[in-house]
Amino acid sequence: MQTLSQKLWNTAECHAHMVLDGVDFRVALARHESAPEENFIRRTLAAYRDAGITYVRDGGDTSGTSVRARELAPEYGIEYRTPIFAIHKNGFYGKIVGKGFDTLSEYRALIEEVKKAGGDFVKVMLGGILDFAVYPQINGGGLSAEWMREMVHIAHEEGFAVMAHVNGAEAILAALEAGIDSLEHGFLQSEESLQLLKETGVVWVPTISPLMSQVGDGRSPDDVLRKYGEEQMELVHRAMKLGVKLAPGSDAGAYRVPHVTGYQDELRWMLAAAGDEKEQMIGVLDRGAREIAARFQRD
Ligand SMILES: [Zn+2]
């Protein structure tokens, strides 16, 4: 594993949340509540550096933690990118790492806020979250295709690439049609959504770790976790065969996905998904990570 991961371009963690710690999200959020906790951020950046990881794309938070990480990252030789906070429509999933809106003018105001804070790209929540207790079940989804189109369009108009959290084939199809630039999670795909992924050239970050790393933990039923995780690995394999762009991102900070080791696990799962074609997967991930790094910054 170590030798294979070293071959990956710079080793790029394409989906992480500095504000979370992989253990307890309430404790983690409280840690940075009054101000980003610099010791935690420095420790985490040092761990990334020591593991040879030189690029981190954050998924956002509401406490300025990823912004502070971006400021400190050059000291550790790390290129750190952040959307500042993630954006969700009120009533849908996304509150934990972002800000909500009700109307389009409120959405525009949030985009303006991202711009003022020097956001590198926009992160939007266009779908719900998997129910780890039930397969297949997505909670907090159901945003309409029209909203997705408006949200992506406005972000693009302001010169931002769009990192989109989406699950479920129907929502994925709508998000791809809306013009997103990267698909995050993307569980429960269909052959049709994989085909559209291929056609659009959108980069898929399948975040297998949050499922597979919880197996045996006891919080959620192992058979459900495995079902989601193994299905995702089959879809990743199929995607690779189709020529879909894939990039490694673990959703580091999510429960049971610590920074650094969560990323290393993610590489392991992606390579496991490739079966006998590990060399091909390494090339695919290498190109996908480069594309993420190139696209997810402001011109
Ligand atoms: Zn995330």
What does this structure look like?
With 299 residues, this protein is α/β, with parallel strands linked by helices. It contains 12 helices and 12 strands. The chain has helices at 2-7, 25-31, 38-50, 65-72, 104-116, 145-157, 169-178, 191-200, 209-212, 222-242, 261-273, 278-295, and strands spanning 12-16, 55-58, 79-81, 86-89, 98-101, 122-125, 129-130, 138-139, 162-166, 182-185, 203-205, 245-246. Strands 5-4-6-9-10-11-12 form a 7-stranded parallel sheet, with helices on both faces. The structure holds zinc ion. The site of zinc ion has 4 residues, from loops.
What coarse outline follows from CA principal-axis ratios? globular
In total, the number of strands is 12
Distinct small molecules: zinc ion
The biggest sheet, with number of strands, parallel, antiparallel or mixed sense and barrel status, is: 7 strands, parallel
Rg measurement, Å: 17 Å
SSE string, helix = H, strand = E?
A: HEHHEHEEEHEEEHEHEHEHHEHH
State the helical fraction. 40-55%
Low-confidence stretches: none
Strand order of the largest sheet: 5-4-6-9-10-11-12
Q: Write down the overall mean pLDDT.
A: 95
Q: What's the number of helices?
A: 12
- Which class best fits the helix and strand makeup? alpha/beta
Q: What are the SSEs and their pairings?
A:
Layout: H1 2-7, E1 12-16, H2 25-31, H3 38-50, E2 55-58, H4 65-72, E3 79-81, E4 86-89, E5 98-101, H5 104-116, E6 122-125, E7 129-130, E8 138-139, H6 145-157, E9 162-166, H7 169-178, E10 182-185, H8 191-200, E11 203-205, H9 209-212, H10 222-242, E12 245-246, H11 261-273, H12 278-295
Parallel strand pairs: 1-2, 2-3, 4-5, 4-6, 6-9, 9-10, 10-11, 11-12
Antiparallel strand pairs: 7-8
Helix pairs in contact: 3-4, 5-6, 6-7, 7-8, 10-11
The protein binds zinc ion.
Zinc ion binds at residues 15, 17, 59, 251.
